[in-house]
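Field log, afternoon session.

UNIT: design team B
ACTIVITY: writing a sequence onto a fixed backbone
BACKBONE:
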């Protein structure tokens, strides 16, 4: 069971402290935000109004990547107009940020080890969790996937906090040639892990594959969903995800308020 959304939400006018390219089509943005930073928990996100040019009415959601006392960071991929404009915003530009939003990953039962599975920018959603796991001295393995070497993210950040990282790239330019799910299957097949727990975020197809594998091996798995969002306040129902309540009943739950973190076995992947 994931931890519920917190009631501490702040709608903040802030300033970009830096916004730098860290990999092909990927940027790391730092902004001031002490209240959000103080309350942010692993898996939670911010909703960002991108005001760099007219016409973008809807905010865009991004997971909080790291925090310190005064700042938050987000690691994002250029996907469309919003993220393209965001990447062009310079240091000192104003930014309107609401958060922290959503529920959080649960690390109450000590996993041995915790295995983080991140595909593309999905690894951004697992970084605060990685920090929390390592703070509790929990053995943590990171399986990081990308299309190719120039798009790999977070390897140094994860390694610096003691996460043992394995890499997969589609073209084999570095690490295993293939998917991170190949590495996951291999690890679970070897059967030497004592009590693993899986945490995953990435493209929908990767998450469905992770869920299929870990259901087969009966390994507890929490997944952060990244559905498109409108309000991020639980009102518009634009972000819903089919959740299996029991064998005969499916309920649509809001990724922005009941999620973004769900148990993999609860998601009705076939819909
Ligand atoms: C809770 C949450 C956390 C997220 N965290 C991160 C993060 O840390 N880093 C990061 O890079 N991204 C993250 N995302 C995804 C990010 O919000 C989208 O990539 C972004 O909103 C795209 O905005 P845009 O204006 O650039 O693209 P748009 O112009 O809005 O869309 C361009 C194209 O991409 C498609 N698209 C847009 N958003 C999504 C989506 N969420 N899923 C599938 N297709 C989509 C659209 O259908 C369209 O075809 C997160 C999403 C959610 C819901
Ligand atoms: S984005 Fe509006 S209900 Fe989730």
């Amino acid at each position: 069971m994931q931890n519920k959304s917190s009631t501490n939400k702040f709608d903040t006018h802030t300033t970009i402290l830096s916004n730098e390219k860290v990999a092909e089509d990927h940027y790391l943005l730092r902004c001031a935000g002490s209240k959000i930073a103080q309350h942010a928990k692993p898996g939670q996100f911010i909703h960002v109004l991108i005001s760099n040019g007219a016409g973008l009415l809807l905010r865009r959601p991004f997971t909080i990547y790291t925090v310190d006392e005064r700042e938050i960071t987000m690691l994002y991929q250029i996907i469309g107009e919003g993220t393209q404009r965001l990447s062009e915003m310079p240091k000192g530009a104003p930014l309107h940020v609401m958060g922290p939003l959503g529920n959080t990953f649960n690390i109450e039962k000590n996993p041995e080890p915790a295995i983080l599975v991140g595909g593309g920018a999905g690894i951004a959603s697992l970084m605060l969790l990685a920090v929390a796991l390592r703070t509790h001295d929990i053995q943590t393995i990171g399986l990081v996937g990308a299309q190719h070497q120039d798009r790999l993210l977070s390897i140094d950040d994860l390694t610096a906090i003691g996460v043992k990282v394995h890499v997969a790239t589609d073209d084999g330019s570095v690490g295993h040639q293939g998917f991170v799910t190949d590495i996951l299957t291999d690890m679970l097949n070897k059967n030497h892990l004592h009590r693993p727990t899986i945490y995953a975020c990435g493209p929908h197809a990767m998450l469905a594959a992770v869920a299929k594998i870990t259901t087969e091996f009966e390994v507890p798995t929490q997944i952060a969903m990244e559905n498109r969002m409108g309000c991020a306040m639980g009102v518009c129902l634009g972000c819903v995800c089919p959740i299996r309540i029991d064998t005969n009943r499916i309920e649509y739950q809001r990724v922005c308020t009941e999620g973004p973190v769900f148990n993999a076995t609860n998601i009705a992947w076939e819909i």
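LOG NOTE: The two ends are 22 Å apart (CA to CA).
NEXT ACTIVITY: expression trials, pending approval
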